[in-house]
From TrEMBL:
Residues 435-646 form the Peptidase S9 prolyl oligopeptidase catalytic domain. Keywords: Hydrolase, Protease, Serine protease, Signal. The keyword Signal applies. Pfam families: Peptidase_S9 (PF00326), Peptidase_S9_N (PF02897). Residues 119-367 form the Peptidase S9A N-terminal domain. Residues 1-24 form the signal peptide. InterPro entries: 6-blade_b-propeller_TolB-like, AB_hydrolase_fold, Pept_S9A_N, Peptidase_S9_cat, Peptidase_S9A. It comes from the Bacteria. This is S9 family peptidase. It comes from Parvularcula lutaonensis.
Amino acid sequence: MSEDLMVKATAAALVALTAFGAGAVAQDVERIERGNLILENVPETPPSVAQSLQQYQNTRSAGFQGFDADGEGIYISTRFGETAQIHAVEKPMAMREQLTFAKEPTSGASPSPTVPGQFVFARDKGGDENYQIYLFDRSTGQSTMLSDGEGRKTGGTWSKDGQRVAWTKTMDGPTKGIVIADIDNPEGRETVFTGDGWWGASDFSEDGDSLILFEYVSINDSKIHLLDLESGEVSQINPSDEPISYGGAQFAANGGHLYFTSDEGSEFRNLFRYDPETGEKENLTAGIDADVGGFAQSEDGRYYAFVVNDEGRSKIHVRQSRNDRDVRVPDIPAGVIGGLEFSPTENVLGFSLNAATSPTDAYSFKVGSRGELNRWTKSEVGGLDTSAFVEPEFFRYESFDGMEIPAFIYKPKGEGPFPVIVSIHGGPEGQSRPTFSPTYQYWVNELGAAVVVPNVRGSTGFGKSYVKMDNGMKRKDSVKDIGALLDWISQQEDLNEDKVVVYGGSYGGYMVLASMVDYNDRLAGGVDIVGISSFITFLENTADYRRDLRRAEYGDERDPEMRAFFEEIDPLNNADKITKPLFIIQGLNDPRVPASEADQILAAVRANGGEAWYMGAKDEGHGFRKKTNRDAMTEAVVMFFKHVFEE
């Protein structure tokens, strides 16, 4: 064990013992280091469990990253080793050619609009999220760093001529800068804008003289601006006195106006066409009571496409730009769609499709013809029989105040009663959708557990009012939604109310801890992955660049009234109520939820005599992205479930 880890662990234990008084119980726990993993109380995985998991752990996915500039092939992100890397596919169902090779995951690819074989990507080190921007050129097989190698860089927006790339850099405290670099002279990179808060570059104008900037304040409040690159003048697009939540924004391919998504005047995000000269705007999706997610335009401006999120499942719409009439779309399997992009040379629309019973793959179809759906990749599922995979059922249950909470349930075959794993998403402005999870399928088919995936209040996808329902002093209302779910479980004859565990990561980790505090007697255990144990210490210690963003959601710990509320609800201050087994999992390089959040709740639970397992990874950040670490975590979680279900 390294000296700094020893100091942190010891300090956390002393804090917990001091906080909980002389009656606290110190535990002598053996700490084992295995490669980059640190383990406490985690048993060895029997060969039978490791073998049963092996096929599920070797499923893959292939996320569509975009078309090459010549329109002949596509780029995908997939994993054939330890980490996800970028591959090229020259035609549908052709062999994949791996292009990037690195120990660290390659975070997506943005292809050049004009030069075949070029794309930009981002990469960090050990999960620290200090990303740098790189240019890959297939003609040389080499990557060139475009950013300066310091701090955190995100994004990678191309100019229309394929000569410049814009990205966001984190500066001092909450300040962000927008940087533009010429790919032939990255050393001449220039910071063209600075501002407090979170800013990103959304799209270059056709002539390259203007740049759309996106300003994020909170999930309910964002703005879009136009930056004149010659004068440096910034003007707000669609100014309003009321908070508006925007999604993407683009210049129209045929000029004259913009497209953007926003929730202005609606519970849901709609797609708008906006005239920057007159300020006039047209809601293109009025009447669709669901969020519009991604959208894209064809290069010639003839078509635009968008995706609607209907209670978690996706539907693609394609329309003619001249009259906004729908164009025929081929039958697409039910699932979740992302990454919409038109080919630069033809009106071919590409995207990723993920279904509950099959992993993500890349697809496309030609617009304006009777062309059928083309499948570019068929990702492996470890040799498993996909007919045995379980499709989740959508349902709603009533919470404490009469609110209907949307959720999905995956059920094993048979009559039950089945043990239950409640998997709570992070965010909190996230959404659980019916996507493929080999982990869920293993829990259902091999452990015989039902998996319930709720979208508690505060989740996205169900209207902006629903998103606001857990803000500030309403934080515990979302935890009460878990209590109501436990009531619902108790009423189901095929579910075992005495064998329920909660599982979640990040904000979902906080929900696990809070549920363990409030409903300890109704739970068999919990798995907290990179979770918040104290909003006060979390907000004080999270990375500078995101602190104000989180205060906008959770509340400001510097405000005495808010701080007192946090003191009351923080799991760390209520750890004595957690007496059921708890498994804490943490990446030690996490800039979002620092490892100190895991250290202090681990020490506090043990100081009260509670049973706590621990797994830390020295080469991970906010979640485990390396296959070896993920496999070890999955095995350990299975062992934990077996432990609590069999007690």
